[in-house]
């Protein structure tokens, strides 16, 4: 369900907490539900908890496939009518 | 008596300060007169006798109960002056005089009241208005929240500007302009409330807009058809009111909306829509389509208008409704909210 | 590309336009897709996506809003808790306006009861630590995205030996309701599966939906590119007659999900039968606190008298939640039931169908 947003991990704090930043807004979240999170990782934040580490690699992979669609559309547009 | 003697004697406001006797007079002279003083107020008559130029009078009032009373970018006093000055200014009036009434909770520190009064005087001075009359009451602990302020204001409206408040000349083709980033004030207040624990740089945009508005009305006479300040309920409420009252359609372009990254961040975190968040230094103008670029350039020259942008237009379609063209090419209706937005999980 | 730019690229206008174009090209047969997540309902509305889709594609909103499916008796019990002098009731904002039989949490707060909106269950625990003389009851509502966070907070409360923190669970799980809808005859051709539920559970939970019911399930993210991409994937499956489970939201969802979160979730909670508004009892669709953590269970530890449930006979929230009727067919719609005075949950919640309809149609 719902409202979770990408946040960048700034620092790991005590008691399984981390300081994170969402577009420059800093807040503390709990890392109880995740493992191996390091500063500069991106995590999904939901009601004060990190739910999962976000994979930049997978995101780039998805975007690559979408880029192919973009290019295909560009090619279509180039075809003179 | 010097303020330091008061502080030495009474660090906090007590019920005696509101009883009308010696302590009341001391409070008035040592806090309010000290900062607000002018020929009229100094006479301390029951009513201020004023000279009003031959003109139509604009008259407004507002009460301020904001919590917390101090927030990044301002305090309740600054808000009380700017809010009323702005209500006059967006109606096309030149603000002249304010009244200031205080309901103070017993136990409020003198230092707090002093800071608030000082802010009010500074804002009033910068806006070119005089605080000419007022009132002070003190209530028992728990009967109000620290301090409540009411300000009423008088201004004068000249002929050509009389139709601005109602917007009766608004028509399809007119453009909609706002003077800068939205949702700063509401978010600054929200983040200051300790239970949210968000650390941000967001500052309230609280400011008197009369000099910005004057510069537009003078350099582009007749171009402005309607103005309203986007306070409670935010930009969306102003536009819904415009569409509903003037029975026109309004189209809003999300991509042109000025909004800061941190505000977007808090909105993302809490699930808020920035369109509905309060502003205290933002005016929405509806401007003749052909002159909108000139008005925009004029606004951008002013310190309170640097991020001004044309954000939409009035159309002859879906009359009474506001349509938002989203960042990604979709569209949706923007309606009035039923109540306050609340932090959501969904 | 900086990381945030990568994630923001899922809001890219051009990509959205191209996806919409591709859907228009491929979609020949009429297809009805249901999303069962309030976050998806909101995102679809917020970005105005229906305007971009061809007429062949219909998006339906299902019972993915935990507020909408919460029973009136749950609210009545929550109200009963907050009326106890030694209780501080803590809740997410979503629940505060949901009507009970004769009141709501918002109304109780206006009458002076200690009802506090929190952003996190950890805030509720903190309140319990700061008020050892009071009982702090936290309303645990939400699906598999939120339930693990409640579980983690209970575990923390246990570790910190806090004895005045209680949870009243309304947590539910997704897959049973997805099957039940089809059993009840709701006509759909595929599911836009919830993204953040799946972050926790993984995608295996939808295997039966695809296998037994022949409905494609694509786990979707919440950005406009995610949603349109998921629609495209579902349309492709449908046109080819090949329903399956796929993950669109690969940057956040692993097929096996978040094992640690699952472990913590089922350490504290176990499945139980639960009542869903409009759908009656669905077996093993709710989450109750295990005996091991009974000391944190409000239902077991705090006795109250609960007002009888009194559903308004005119309210058809149930049928609307299933997508069988639309809000305009409700006798109470805009005639006694509106966002300022909601009768049923569908009007309270921003994702509720009635609330959305009201906002679109209030000016005719």
CATH topological fold name of chain A: SH3 type barrels
CATH architecture of the largest domain in chain C: 3-Layer(aba) Sandwich
- Tell me the strand order in the biggest sheet of chain C: 2-1-7-8-9
CATH topology name of the largest domain in chain C: Rossmann fold
Largest sheet of chain C: 5 strands, parallel
Radius of gyration of chain A: 18 Å
Biggest chain-to-chain interface with counts: A-C, 33 and 51 residues
Q: What is the level-2 CATH architecture name of chain A?
A: Roll
In percent, how much strand structure appears in the residues of chain C?
A: 15-25%
Number of domains of chain C: 3
Polypeptide structure, described:
The complex is a heterotrimer of chains A (81), B (346) and C (364). Helices cover 28% and strands 38% of the residues of chain A. Chain A is of the alpha+beta class. Chain A has a five-stranded antiparallel beta sheet with strand order 3-2-1-4-5, with no helix packed on it. The model of chain A has no long low-confidence stretch (mean pLDDT 88). Helix content of chain B is 32%, strand content 24%. In chain B, the strands form three sheets. Chain B has a seven-stranded mixed beta sheet, sandwiched between helices. A four-stranded mixed beta sheet of chain B has the order 1-6-4-5. In chain B, helix 4 (76-89) packs parallel to helix 5. The longest helix of chain B is centred in the middle third of the chain and has 18 residues, at 110-127. In chain C, the strands form three sheets. A five-stranded parallel beta sheet of chain C has the order 2-1-7-8-9. Chain C has 17 helices and eleven strands. With 364 residues, chain C is α/β, with parallel strands linked by helices. The interface between A and C is large, with 33 and 51 residues.
